[in-house]
Structure formats: C-alpha cells, structure tokens
C-alpha cells in the first residue's frame, strides 16, 4: 500500500487529501499539522473549514484510509510520498517585506523531513511557492539526507474555496513538474498514477519544475487580472451610464475571452490572489524586470482602488458623513460558500467606514464574531502568520456589532452594504427591511446580487457596482 503524508491540514491539505483518500482506497493518507485544535477539529463532527460536500467525503474515509494526526514526524518517516501544504504568507519583515513569500514554514517542514526520514521519498510542493523554490528545498534535503534519495515535485493546487470538492473531483487539469532525469521522470509517473485513479490522463500535464511553479503564480495573476479589468470598467460604466453586467456579457461572448470570472465586485479577496501577485512582482524585480513587475502591480492597485471607491461612494452618498450612523454589513467572507475571511474586501470596507466613525452591525452566515473581531483589529499580512499573532485591542471594536441575522443588522440602520454574494441575500424580505430602517434608506450592493430597480420601487436609494445610478 502506498503511503501518503501531507504536512499542513488547512484549506488545501485537508480537502485535497480527503479526495485522494476517497478516490484511491488502496492508498493510506495521513494529514498532519502542528496545530492541535485544527487536527482535533478534523477528527470531530465540526470540521475546521466550511466547504460544501467536504463533510461527506471525510466521513466516508476517515478511520479507513484517511487519518488526521499531530504526530508529524512518525507519519512523515513512514510515508512514500510527502505533500507539503503549509502556508506561504507574504513576508512582514526584512528583505522583501510586503512582497516576497515567507518560506519559514516550508523550510522548517523540509528540515524536519530531512531529519526524520529513513527511506527514499517523493516530496511534493503543494503550497504555492516562488519559482525556483524546489532548488532551495533540494539543497536542504540533500545536505541533510544521510544518503536518502529525495525527488522533489511541484504539484500546485488550483481549487477555489466554496467549490473545492467539485474542483478536486473534476479538475480542469492537474499539473506535475519534476526534474528531467530518469529518477525525476519515475517520481512524476508515481504521482501521476495517484491522480490517474480519477483524472483522465490527458488532463494531467507534466512539465519541468520551474514551469509548474511559475504556472501557478501565472494562473492566479491572470484570474485576478480579469477581475481588476472588469472592476476598472465598472468605474467607467458608472461615469458613462453603461451597465457593467451588459458589458461583461457582451465581452465574454467572444469565445477567445469567455464568460467566466467577469463579475464586477467590491474587489477580490482571499488568501492567495494578492499574496501570489506580490510574490510575482518581487520575483520580476529580483530578475531585473521592473516593467513586468509594474504591469502586475497594477492589478493590486486597481483592487485597492475599487475597495476605496466603494467606501467613498457610501460616505459621499450619505451626505458626506457616516459619523454616528448605523450601517448594516451583509456578508464578511471573501466569497460565498466559505467561512474564510482572509484578505476579504469586507475588512477594508469596514475599516474605511469605521475611519469615518460609522457604527457597523455585521452579519455573515458562516463567519464567527471572534473571527470578525480578530480581522478588524489585525495588522495587514498578520493573518497568515498565526504563530506571531498579538491579542487584539478591544477599544477599536466598540463601534462594531456582530449579529445573528440580516434583519437585526438592518434594523434602524441608515444604510446596508452587501459585501458577499451569499444566496440568502437575494431572498431577503427587503420591504420588511426597508420598513425598519432610518430614512432615506441606502442600499450599496458590492456584489450586484439584488435587483436594483425593484429596490428603488420599494424606496431604497440604490448604488450597485458599475450600474447606472
Ligand atoms: P492554511 O493556513 O489553511 O493551512 C496551512 C497549515 O499548515 C496550517 O494549519 C498550519 O498550522 C500548518 N503548518 C505550518 N507549518 C507547519 C509545519 N512546519 N508542520 C506542520 N504543519 C504546519 O493554508 P492553505 O489555505 O491551506 O494554503 C496552503 C498553501 O496552498 C499556500 O501556499 C497557498 O498559497 C496554497 N493554495 C491555497 C488555496 C486556497 O484556496 N486556500 C488554493 C490553492 C493553493
Ligand atoms: C482562487 C483561484 O480561483 C483558484 O484557482 C486558486 O487555486 C486559489 O485562488 C488559490 O491559489 O488560492 P479562491 O481565492 O478560493 O480561488 O476563490 P475565487 O473564486 O478565485 O475568488 C477570489 C476572489 O475574487 C473572491 O473575493 C471573489 O468574490 C472575487 N471574484 C471572483 C470577483 O470579484 N469576480 C469574479 O468574477 C470572480
């Protein structure tokens, strides 16, 4: 029986390994992590992450060929294939701070693998890493290996949160990069055989190591660039009377462009787009390519602009001040169907409104009060450095309430901001909500989920991204 161990039981390690175990009953999969609460949660009825379909998959395999453990060293030692899926945040200090990837967690995992291994292993980069990381990892492993043969593969993950199980069951492609040597090719083949249990072989792309590492950063940069492009258009739509939904539709009908990922929004969030583009920018700068670096930097700048533009629109519409006014924030997660708030645009919008002295009541169906409090009091980039977190300051939270439903959030509010596209926000009783609000009642739709004309008929003053006012 092939034994797989995955270091890092997070949003990627957990679901990815659960699906491998589910699709490959002949493989034993152990997911390990240094975080005891995380592993306890994976072993309980309340998994540490919310992801549609995940509970089912985990329940079917856990205790059979899928295990979660904190005994990192034992399971790494016993494995034939070790996936490393630890966090690779943006550096907060020192050389490259604010841009470069912090590989501390990766390096400590690699050193541990070298220390505890007693047999040959394939080590798989699952985390998103800077191009050429495999070379550094090879150095760490080889210099400490006591004659053990390690083959490093790059196998970046393309799943999106909220659809992780669907994406893993039917990936557009699986990418495997390896050394172009007989041993490298053998390792690539071994990993290919794992995925071939359920992924058609023509969808498994094999490349050299550096192409695989760079393709991951490139894919995220291209995806984020589409959103910044449509968001830039949304500003022009508002200025000219064009409707961004109609423009996206017309543009996306061109088969060379395609219809997906063209929804204008309050800005993209999530743990990776910004981090990976900053990483790409840093790599370009280090390779003497400032023009390329500046090109990609612009994707982030437009995203920041879009979030600021939304806050400015709220404040300017409400007679240039929100001081002392109650604003209901509907949705805090960075997208629907996840409880993840990493880099969610809601953080910047809430901070912007608090900066203008608003009182905000927040409702999200999947995000806890504790999480929201942590997010609103944390410094930029600290969220992905869990080991260094400082306790949050309670004073900055006295203007924030986290409530249990949308109606409570909107009661007596002057305005509503929809910041996540949860389906339930489409089905709310907006007449009832309007009746319980201060007048004039403002509605700012940061996700274009509601029918603006119907809301205007009810009496709301409506602002929707990229739509005529
Ligand atoms: P995460 O923070 O949810 O999980 C990482 C886990 O690694 C944490 O539980 C942490 O405790 C653990 N860890 C850190 N150092 C460790 C060590 N030395 N030994 C054992 N465990 C250790 O992160 P994530 O969202 O799963 O992302 C992981 C990687 O995958 C990142 O590089 C990210 O860019 C990439 N990625 C993420 C997504 C996504 O949707 N979240 C998608 C594709 C790729
Ligand atoms: C993204 C990529 O889609 C995955 O392929 C990749 O594996 C992952 O990053 C990663 O490397 O972490 P994710 O961040 O989970 O996945 O979610 P997306 O669906 O890409 O959404 C990202 C952000 O863009 C969200 O805030 C979403 O609301 C926003 N978005 C998305 C838009 O504003 N408009 C769109 O048309 C699409």
Automatic annotation (TrEMBL):
Any one GO CC term of the record: nucleus
Catalytic function, reaction form: UDP-alpha-D-glucose + 2 NAD(+) + H2O = UDP-alpha-D-glucuronate + 2 NADH + 3 H(+)
Any one GO molecular function term: UDP-glucose 6-dehydrogenase activity
Keyword annotations from UniProtKB, A to Z: NAD, Oxidoreductase
Binding site residues for NAD(+): 8-13, 33, 38, 86-90, 127-128, 161, 272-275, 342
Family matches, as NCBIfam families: NDP-sugDHase
Protein name: UDP-glucose 6-dehydrogenase
Taxonomic path: Eukaryota, Viridiplantae, Streptophyta, Embryophyta, Tracheophyta
């Amino acid at each position: 029986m092939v034994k797989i161990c995955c270091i890092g039981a997070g949003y990627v390690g957990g679901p990815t390994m659960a699906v491998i175990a589910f699709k490959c009953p002949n493989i034993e999969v152990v997911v390990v992590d240094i975080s005891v609460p995380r592993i306890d949660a994976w072993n309980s009825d309340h998994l540490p992450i919310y992801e549609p379909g995940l509970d089912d998959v985990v329940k079917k395999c856990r205790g059979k060929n899928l295990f979660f453990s904190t005994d990192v060293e034992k399971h790494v030692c016993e494995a034939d294939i070790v996936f490393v899926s630890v966090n690779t945040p943006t550096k907060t200090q020192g050389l490259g701070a604010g841009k470069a990837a912090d590989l501390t967690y990766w390096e400590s995992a690699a050193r541990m693998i070298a220390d505890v291994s007693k047999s040959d292993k394939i080590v798989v980069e699952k985390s998103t890493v800077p191009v050429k990381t495999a070379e550094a990892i090879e150095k760490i492993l080889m210099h400490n290996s006591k004659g053990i043969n390690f083959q490093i593969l790059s196998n970046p993950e393309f799943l999106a949160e909220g659809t992780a199980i669907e994406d893993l069951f039917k990936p557009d492609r699986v990418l495997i990069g390896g050394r172009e040597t007989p041993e490298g090719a053998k390792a690539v083949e071994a990993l290919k055989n794992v995925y071939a249990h359920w992924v058609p072989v023509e969808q498994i792309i094999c490349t050299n190591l550096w192409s695989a590492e760079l393709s991951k950063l490139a894919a995220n940069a291209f995806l984020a660039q589409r959103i910044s492009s449509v968001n830039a258009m949304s500003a022009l739509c508002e200025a000219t009377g064009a409707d961004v939904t109609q423009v996206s539709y017309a543009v996306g009908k061109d088969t060379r462009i395609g219809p997906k990922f063209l929804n204008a929004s309050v800005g993209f969030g999530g743990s990776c787009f910004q981090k990976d583009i900053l990483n790409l920018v840093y790599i370009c700068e280090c390779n003497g390519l400032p023009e390329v670096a500046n090109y990609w930097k612009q994707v982030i700048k437009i995203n920041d602009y879009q979030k600021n533009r939304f806050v400015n629109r709220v404040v300017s519409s409400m007679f240039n001040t929100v001081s002392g006014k109650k604003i209901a924030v509907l949705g805090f997660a960075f997208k629907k169907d996840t409880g993840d708030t990493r880099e969610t645009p809601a953080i910047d919008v809430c901070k912007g409104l608090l900066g203008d002295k608003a009182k905000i009541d927040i409702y999200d169906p999947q995000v806890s009060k504790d999480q929201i409090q942590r997010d609103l009091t944390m410094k930029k980039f600290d969220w992905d450095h869990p080991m260094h977190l400082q306790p949050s300051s309670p004073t900055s939270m006295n203007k924030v309430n986290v409530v249990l439903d949308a109606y409570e959030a909107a009661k007596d509010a002057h305005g509503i901001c929809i910041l996540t596209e949860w389906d339930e926000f489409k089905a709310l009783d907006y007449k009832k909500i309007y009746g319980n609000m201060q007048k004039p009642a403002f509605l700012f739709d940061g996700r274009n989920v509601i029918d603006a004309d119907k809301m205007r008929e009810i009496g709301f003053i409506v602002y929707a991204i990229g739509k005529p006012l």
